[in-house]
Structures are given as structure tokens and as C-alpha cells.
Amino acid sequence: AAVCGSHAMTAASTSIAPVVEDDIEDLEDLGGAETADGVRVTRDLPPVVTLRAKRSASRAAVGGGGANTDGVGHRSRANDSDGRGAQSDDDDDEEGDDVPEILGSSEPAGASAVPGVAKVHVKTFGCSHNHSDSEFMAGQLGAYGYDLVTDPDDADVWVVNTCTVKNPSQSAMNTVIIKGKAQGKKLVIAGCVPQGDKKAKELEDLSLIGVTQIDRIVDVVERTLAGDAVRLLEKKPLPSLDLPKVRRNEHVEILPLSTGCLGQCTYCKTKHARGELGSYSPEALVQRVQTAIAEGVTEIWLSSEDTGAYGIDLGTDVTRLLRDLTAVLPTDGSCMLRLGMTNPPYILAHLDAVAEAMHHPSVYAFLHIPVQAGSDAVLDRMKREYVVAEFEKVADTLLAKVPGITIATDIICGFPGETSEDWEKTMALCRKYEFVELHLSQFYPRPGTPAARMKRVDTKEVKRRSRELTAYIESYRPHDTLVGTTQKVWVTDVAKDKVSLVGHTKSYVQVLLPGGEENKARLMGKSAEVRIIDAHRWHVTGELIEVHDRTAPRPEAPPAPKYSSPAAEAWDLKTRKRKEAAARADWVNEKGNNACSSCGAPEGETCGGDKEGTGSSDAETTTTRNDESLGTWMFRALTTAPENRLEWILTAGVFLGLLGIMLSWVASHLSKIASGVSAMASMTRTDR
To answer: With the CA atoms of 210, 215, 217 and 220 taken in that order, what torsion angle do they form, in degrees rounded to the nearest 10?
Structure first.
């Protein structure tokens, strides 16, 4: 969407419709503009699809294999001794500080509280990153046994993945919450709203799960069904890309590159939720792309709050990533890669790499670069960290290096302090480039952001400016030159009329093709040659010439890397140490206060951890032994190596104390020593 700038857009035909909940749900796919009367110029897109009901294992689109997965990539569950389900291996326990806050049980568990026996409806608002998170959550719930349903009325629990970009998206969340409570549904609220504003009144007494905690969704749903209100909002490393997944479109893999960003935009609420930049490792992303290709997807969407900033936190960059990813794409162009949204500042250094990637036959020539305003003064108040000239350099360079590229952008209308001169500069920028895709949004003050405290532009003037730009972007027809040409398209969806098929050209122009079950069976998930017969503002229509068969074999999915990022590895090490320390403490408590902390042996017995048979026990490694005085311990501490952390501290203290005493003595006797040395020198000269 325009405000966040993280939502990739697609091309489609024009229609006028009031802003309703379903429009807001797919903000990433809304094109055109919002008029002064609250009417959005949208495009005929595929229908808003909530996560499909769980299919059989042979048809389900799930995450790749790897550790702790069954034959179709689902995370396995193991039954413990009392028959309850527990995640196997690394996911079996709550991880130290990463423990849900239980606000209390509102009612006893009912029949639906049996683990894995309930119907779940997943509702998603916002960007492609949110949809990816929902796919991962649905995959875990389905793998555990929950029935995923598309009809919310049939569900026992609703998982609502929220968006905090603009007021309408959060208002739509509130509507869903009110509706769910009225129907007596259990509610789990996920995504950016609870992460960024957990004290919101609408979230009281509801289960909340944060953006980095989606791998704990099964735990949260189980406790919610049992009547608890759970809050799991602690920030931790990114969840694994190897989690099971149910795709909303089985032909499209949405791949998050990172979370958060390096910016400090004054209007952005998403930063409060997603936080600072955190990138997945290149190895994890390459493995996920290979897995998606092996599973037969036709498109892979890279999703990020700022693709250009990828990897800065890891000491790598997007140039290396693009080269690594294009190296594993099929050579026959049967699977296409779409780059994610990028802001101008960080992509400037990588324009050659972006152009190189887009010349690959399996990469769309499409990039979403939100400019937000054509005035440097407005950009400065937004703290966008670039000037208009830098945006123009990005656009001009790519237009020159990648003929036919589609550049999408966002404009915020009526940002606080925007003058008539500022707005005219924005209009001039739009006239210069005649963007094929442009998303216009009136300014929404988001609570807690600096822009919310700035003086607003008069509402009537904001509406006038919105009407002006809306009229302009509807006035030109960028696709007319395609009429009569032959284009290769990749078909991945069904249009809003539920008949026409949706494909995209190499430049990501949307092409509507004749539908029907026969054509759907022939074309869906494949590429084809089509002749363009008509053009509209947001899409073109075509007729089929030839369907392409895949010529390059799809490789098997590679094993997943153990860790998705260095931060995840550090977190795992910290968690394991914490668990080991807790287990050792419990063991010692069971054996008695004087037991060995390594093996639990009672005092006086040989330590079970003594590998050399020396008979030393942990009782001999405590700070002071039971049979030695403080003086004896000090002598031992000075003459032997320290054996534990406290002993290290005390030994260092003793040495520092002795050193201090020595220095004090030297300082107090320095004058006497100097006099003595001088006298000795005089005597030596006298003797001579």
C-alpha cells in the first residue's frame, strides 16, 4: 500500500467499487487510486482468497522437507507418555523467556479444545509478507490436524492476521473482532496490530501472537480453545522458512527476504511492529526457492519491507542474493521470479545487479519503487532519506538498462505541510514517467507516529488533489502498443469474474484469457504464447496460440539449512544453555543441596562425570570446600586454575586487591626510595 510502501502490485482492468473489507484485505493488489468520495479505482483481480481448506497430502502445497518433517513436508508431532501431542525435537518446550503470557481462563475447555480437533479459519489483511505468514501458520495448523475452512461461520476459532498500515485496515480488523465475538468464536489476533499496539482496547482479553512468533501458532490456538487468553509477543529471530505451508495460490510462492527496515519514516506504523532489519541468510532463501520449484510453483514473489536493504545486517547484500537465486531458476522459464518492493536509498548501489537479474528469462521486468512525493521538502518531513533526484536516477537507470520494464510507485496525498507548490511537483513527476502502476493514498495519521502530531492539510484540498491525480492516471493507456503483438505469459489465477484466466507478460502486464474448465486444465500453472487483441487501462486481453510444456526437469527439494540466519543460531544456543542450566538445577535439587551439579552424586561419593577416574567430585569444585578455611581457599585460588565462574571472580578480586596494596605501598614509599637511590648515587661519586 502507499503508506507502508511494502505491497507489491499487479496489473488488471479498471472498475469502480466502494472500499469494502474484501478490497482492504488484498491491499498489495489494489491499483488505481482512492477518490475524494472514498471510492477506490481498483482493477479486476483474482478474487480475494482466504486460505483454502486442507487438501490431501498428495495435493497440498506445503513447505519443503528437512528436519522434523514427514513425507510431505509437514512438521511432525510425537505423542508423549500421557497421550498429548508435543512437537518433536527442538520445538517441544517453551523457550526460556519466550513463554506465553496467560491472562486467564474465561471458561472451561469444551469438546473443541481437544488438541488438533477443531475447525480454523485464517483471515488475512495487508501485504504479501502478511499473506506469507498466514500460509505458514495455516500449514502448521493443518499439519497438526486442524481442519482449515474457508467459511468463517463453520470455524471454531478465527486466526486474524492484521495490518497496521492505514486506518481502514485496522478498522476492518475491528469489524472482524466484533463479528467474531458476537458469534461466540474463539479469536487469535496475529500480525502487525498486536505487535505494534498490544494495549489497543479492541485487543483486550484476546489471544495475541507476534510477527516473529508464528511458529508457535499451534500452542496459541490450543490454549485459546481451552479458554485461555494468550499473549506471545516477544521479539525473537525470524521463524524458519522450512515450516509447513498452505499457499493461498498453489502456483505462487511468497518468499519473505527479511523483516523490518532501516528507515524511520514519520508516518509509518509498520516499523513499530516489524522493527529493525532482520534478514534471512542467502543459503536459507536459495533452499526455499529450490523447494518451491521442486513443488511445481509457477511464480516466486520476493517480499520485503525494503529489498534494497537486504543483507546489510548480515554483511551481505541484494546483489549476491539475486545472483544466487537466478542461478537455481529453471532454464526453460517455467518458474518466474518477481522482485519485491524497494526504497530508493539502498537500491542505488545495486542497479546493475537488478538490471542483470531482469535480463534473466525467468525474472519479471517489474519493480515497485514507492516515491511517496515529488517534493524534497515533503520527503524531508517524511524522513524518507532520499531526494527526488535519487528516485529519478533509479527509474532512469532501470528504464535505460531494462527496456519494457514496468515501474510501480506509491503517492501519499495531503501529507502534513504539503503546499500547493509541493503537490504540483508531485504531479509533474507523475506526468514525466506516466507510471503503469500507481497507488494513491490520502494521508492517514497513525497513532504513535511523529506525523500524527503534525498539522494536517485542509480536508477539502486533500480531496481535490486526490481527484486531480486520479483523473490523470486514468487518462493514459500504457498498454495500447501491445495490441497485435505476440507475448509469452505465465498463467497463475482466475479473474474476478470467476471465468477468465489471469496471466502476466515478462513486464508483468496482466493478460486476461478465455476461461472454462478445459482451458483451466490446459493453462493453469503453465506458460503460453498469446496474441494480444485488446487493451484497457489496467490489463490487456489475449487469445491462446500455443501452450508451452516444461522442458527442464524440476529437481528434488534440497535439505533445509539448520538455521535460517545467524541470529537464529545464536538464539538456539542461548535457549539450549538456558534449558541445560535449568535441568541441572532441577537434578541437583532432587539429589540434595550438597549433590554434584554435573552428575547428581551425593556428597562424598565419586563424581559420575569424572571421565579419568581420579575420584574428584563436584563437591571439590564449589567456591569453598566444606573442610577448608578462607585462608586455605585463598591459597588454593592463587595456586590453582579457577574452576567455576564465581571462583574466577573471587580470584580476580584477590589479585586486584594484592596489586592495589602493592601499588599503594610503592606510592607511599616512593619519596624514600628516590632519596635512597639519590644517596647511593652520591656515595658512589664520593668514593670515586
So the answer is: -80
